[in-house]
Structure prediction request, 174 residues.
Amino acid sequence: MKNQLTRKWIAVGIVWVGALILTYLNLQMIQQIEAKQESIEFMQRDDTFLRNNFEKVTHVLKQRASLHKSIDSLQIELLSIENRIKSLAQKKGLSEIRLASDQAAIQWDRIPLDLYVTGTYRDLVFWIQAMESDAPFLVVTRVKMAEKRDEDGYNFQVGIDFRFILAEDENNSA
Prediction:
């Protein structure tokens, strides 16, 4: 009688352990299904967003591409940039124009340039506006003004980031 009762309790225990194992497996399966459904919902939202905003996204990508200039040679392009900056600065009334670059501070996609000019606030602001529209890959990062004013205006130091991408890197990524 005692042996028979023990066997029944063992059978009940096995049934309960089986039920707990199946419950655990069921919960795991539910979590996997929920994760996949959530992933599908995100993809559907992204797809809907891209369909509704395709023109805007395309415009932003084109605008982003214009913020980096594709170049073949950094040294040749720096000479071209120097001529471009000096010419525009002279047109906007700035004088004593000098451009310096720190080759040691070059990063993978940008090089910092320092422009030293003399002029008025107004001329400098017009020059910055012209640079933004003419060369969006040249980004003004800082402007320092010398305390001393001379007869031509103030002495300014303008920090510029020249953002570029090497043409061979661009071809490899395409």
Summary: The chain is about 60% helix and 25% strand. The chain has two domains: 2-52, 69-173.
